[in-house]
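Input structure tokens:
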């Protein structure tokens, strides 16, 4: 879809999102508009939210159009739409591909939220809502950075494309198909991904490594029917007990994963990277008490917290379904159970190999009288970014200039599947310039985004494009 827009005619044709009164500052206008974005419950995983997801894609498209981008539109595949826009008026200059996602995680548990997950509220310096930091606030700052430069100069210092997807949180395949398709709209020299965290408030950070993921379900069955636990207890196998035994066999109390071959390809961070991590401001007790909020940390002996969360693989159980979970008591022996589990992968582990290893391990761990199967839901490879390129160097410089401190390089334990896809199919590096904070409550109740990071993010992104273009 091509909209015949020139930058000057935009105000007439693009839907106005915010009622602006003359007394409002630019920052107040941004906050109001971001609130509208956050009010749309674009939960990608639940089918009943599909119309909201679509509305959110349209909202994102309108933001791109209002910023002065061309060829703005939705790209519809077999799933939630992607949003595209471009500005290619700087011949001879590099082209950057902005990536983010407008879909969000489910908001539950609802009763833990101080204000509603889709009723954004500013408290102090933070804006609270599902998706505030992951990733609408960060998508918003990318768009506003471009809009600011367009408003000021009528043009941009580099060429830009935007690809904002709606299936990041649900592990959909639309984006992979598009990235693999060789579509000319993805021709770029580097990707700019705003979907990670800074190491600490006021500490400019670039993320240069992510873990991969293999997410699946263990389906376990004992017999044909549930049984009376008094009549058969003692003789009949129990599916919940059995699935717990399988899970306990996969990972021991010291965090070691007992899946054959699982560690074979795991590499260590370099000495230089380890030395850089050692200079990060970090207090393990404070991290445990204030951020993780637990009485004791767990994990593999012999590895520090950075290694355990950034450069070592892990295995987690997300939920177990089966048996009787209603109010009151019911004496039953359940005959089936399902557990949702995922493994995080690190360089150079491969998702396809890890899936096969997990399938074999689940079968092997299954106790007598039961059958168990690992069924894959989605997977993404780990990634490490080479820091020796101009796209990273300019990003570090832009962050440094705006935050007034030397930029640090960290890894992150989370996964962003697109980073591996850009590398594999487009051969381009990703610059992970994130503005979330460790206490932003991603995927949890009371998710927030720190407003000073929104404003400095807009500045840093604009500065980055200027540096790239100079
Ligand atoms: N933005 C996160 C990943 C992230 C969080 C990276 C914090 C760095 C720091 C992303 O939206 C996410 O949650 N990804 C999922 C993977 C996906 C395939 C479901 C994840 O990591 O669980
Ligand atoms: Mn995200
Ligand atoms: Mn997320």
């Amino acid at each position: 879809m091509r909209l015949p827009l020139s930058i000057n005619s935009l105000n007439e044709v693009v839907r106005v999102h915010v009622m602006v009164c003359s007394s409002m500052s630019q920052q107040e206008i941004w906050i109001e508009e971001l609130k509208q974005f956050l009010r749309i419950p674009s939960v990608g995983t639940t089918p009943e939210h599909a119309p909201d997801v679509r509305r959110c894609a349209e909202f994102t498209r309108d933001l791109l159009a209002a910023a002065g981008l061309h060829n703005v539109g939705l790209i519809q595949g077999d799933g939630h739409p992607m949003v595209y826009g471009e500005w290619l008026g700087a011949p001879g200059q590099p082209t950057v591909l902005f990536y983010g996602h407008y879909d969000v995680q489910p908001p539950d548990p609802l009763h833990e939220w101080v204000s509603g997950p889709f009723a954004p509220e500013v408290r102090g310096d933070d804006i609270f809502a599902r998706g505030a930091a992951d990733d609408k606030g960060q998508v918003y700052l990318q768009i506003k950075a471009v809009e600011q430069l367009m408003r000021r100069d009528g043009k941009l210092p580099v060429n830009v494309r935007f690809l904002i997807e709606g299936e990041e949180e649900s592990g959909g395949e639309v984006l992979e198909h598009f990235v693999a398709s060789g579509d000319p709209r993805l021709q770029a020299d580097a990707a700019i991904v705003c979907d990670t965290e800074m190491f600490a408030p006021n500490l400019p950070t670039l993320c240069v490594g992510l873990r991969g993921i293999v997410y699946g379900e263990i389906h376990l069955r004992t017999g044909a029917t549930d049984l009376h636990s008094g009549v058969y207890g003692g003789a009949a196998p129990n599916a919940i007990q059995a699935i717990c035994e399988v899970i306990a066999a996969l990972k021991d109390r010291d965090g070691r994963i007992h899946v054959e071959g699982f560690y074979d390809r795991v590499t260590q961070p370099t000495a230089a990277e380890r030395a850089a991590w050692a200079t990060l401001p970090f207090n393990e007790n404070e991290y445990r008490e204030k951020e993780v909020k637990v009485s004791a940390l767990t994990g593999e002996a012999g590895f520090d917290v950075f290694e355990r969360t950034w450069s070592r693989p892990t295995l987690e159980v997300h939920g177990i379904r089966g048996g009787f979970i209603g109010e009151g008591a019911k004496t039953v022996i359940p005959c089936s159970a399902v557990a949702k589990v995922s493994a995080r992968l690190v360089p150079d582990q491969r998702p396809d190999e890890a899936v096969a290893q997990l399938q074999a391990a689940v079968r092997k761990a299954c106790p007598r009288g039961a059958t168990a199967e690992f069924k894959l839901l989605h997977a993404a490879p780990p990634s490490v970014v080479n820091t020796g390129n101009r796209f990273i160097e300019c990003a570090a410089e832009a962050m440094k200039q705006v935050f007034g401190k030397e930029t640090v390089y960290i890894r992150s334990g989370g996964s962003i599947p697109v980073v591996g896809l850009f590398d594999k199919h487009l051969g381009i590096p990703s610059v992970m310039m994130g503005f979330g904070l460790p206490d932003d409550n991603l995927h949890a109740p009371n998710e927030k985004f720190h407003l000073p990071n929104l404003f400095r993010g807009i500045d840093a992104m604009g500065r980055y494009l200027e540096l790239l273009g100079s």
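The longest strand covers residues 212-221. Residues 132-153 form the longest helix (22 residues).
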